[in-house]
Amino acid sequence: MAIITVFRSRLRPGVEDEYQRLAEAMSELAHAMDGFIEEKLFVAADGERVAIVRFADWSSHRAWATHPEHRGAQRRGRDEFYESYDITIAEETDHRHMVRSTDPAD
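Below the sequence we write its predicted C-alpha cells.
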C-alpha cells in the first residue's frame, strides 16, 4: 500500500511569492521521483495550506524525504517561510476509487 504524507502549514506574512517559486520546484522534483503517485494542494479560507502526497512505498517516500534539494527546501521553510506546520505520515490500509461513467450506454 501507498505511503501518504499530509503536510499542513501556515506561511509568514509577505513570503507568498518566494514560497510559491520554491513550492513549484519541489512539486516538479517530487513528480520526477520513482514511486511518486500523486500530489494534491489546497488552501483553506483561513490561509492554512494542505498538501497530500502519495508515494508507492516507504523506500520511495524516504528517497523523497531525504533528497538533497528537498532537504534544502525544508530548511528554508523552517528558516524563512513557515509560521507553523504539521506533518502526518501514514501507511495506506485501504484505497477505493470510483468514477461515474458519462456514457449513457453504461
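Strands lie at 3-11, 36-43, 49-55, 82-91.
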